[in-house]
Amino acid sequence: MEKHLKFLIAAAVSIPVFVELRTFGGMLLGYEVSLPVSVVVGIVVAALVVLVDENVSFDRSMSL
Asked: How many domains in the chain?
Protein backbone atom coordinates (compact mmCIF):
# COMPACT_ATOMS: atom_id res chain seq x y z
CA MET A 1 0.00 0.00 0.00
CA GLU A 2 1.23 3.50 -0.72
CA LYS A 3 2.67 5.52 2.16
CA HIS A 4 0.21 8.40 1.92
CA LEU A 5 -2.73 5.98 2.16
CA LYS A 6 -1.22 4.39 5.25
CA PHE A 7 -0.84 7.84 6.78
CA LEU A 8 -4.44 8.77 5.95
CA ILE A 9 -5.76 5.54 7.45
CA ALA A 10 -3.66 6.02 10.58
CA ALA A 11 -4.80 9.63 10.97
CA ALA A 12 -8.43 8.71 10.35
CA VAL A 13 -8.22 6.20 13.20
CA SER A 14 -5.91 7.87 15.71
CA ILE A 15 -7.46 11.34 15.78
CA PRO A 16 -10.99 10.21 16.74
CA VAL A 17 -9.60 7.76 19.33
CA PHE A 18 -7.49 10.55 20.84
CA VAL A 19 -10.41 13.00 20.92
CA GLU A 20 -12.79 10.44 22.41
CA LEU A 21 -10.35 9.58 25.18
CA ARG A 22 -9.71 13.24 25.98
CA THR A 23 -13.36 14.31 25.98
CA PHE A 24 -15.38 11.28 27.06
CA GLY A 25 -12.73 9.39 29.03
CA GLY A 26 -13.68 11.06 32.27
CA MET A 27 -17.35 10.31 31.81
CA LEU A 28 -16.87 6.69 30.79
CA LEU A 29 -13.94 5.68 32.98
CA GLY A 30 -14.64 7.88 35.98
CA TYR A 31 -11.30 9.70 35.82
CA GLU A 32 -9.48 12.01 33.42
CA VAL A 33 -7.32 10.20 30.86
CA SER A 34 -3.92 11.90 30.69
CA LEU A 35 -2.55 13.40 27.49
CA PRO A 36 0.37 10.94 27.09
CA VAL A 37 -1.94 7.96 27.55
CA SER A 38 -4.34 9.34 24.94
CA VAL A 39 -1.49 9.86 22.46
CA VAL A 40 -0.07 6.37 23.03
CA VAL A 41 -3.46 4.67 22.71
CA GLY A 42 -4.19 6.60 19.50
CA ILE A 43 -0.85 5.57 17.99
CA VAL A 44 -1.23 1.92 19.02
CA VAL A 45 -4.75 1.66 17.61
CA ALA A 46 -3.66 3.33 14.36
CA ALA A 47 -0.71 0.93 14.03
CA LEU A 48 -2.98 -2.06 14.59
CA VAL A 49 -5.45 -0.87 11.96
CA VAL A 50 -2.67 -0.33 9.40
CA LEU A 51 -1.21 -3.78 10.14
CA VAL A 52 -4.61 -5.45 9.76
CA ASP A 53 -5.25 -3.52 6.56
CA GLU A 54 -1.93 -4.70 5.10
CA ASN A 55 -2.24 -8.34 6.14
CA VAL A 56 -5.93 -9.20 5.73
CA SER A 57 -7.43 -9.64 2.31
CA PHE A 58 -11.13 -8.95 1.91
CA ASP A 59 -11.85 -10.57 -1.41
CA ARG A 60 -15.25 -11.95 -2.38
CA SER A 61 -14.06 -15.56 -2.56
CA MET A 62 -13.34 -15.54 1.16
CA SER A 63 -15.98 -17.51 3.04
CA LEU A 64 -16.88 -16.78 6.63
From this structure: 1
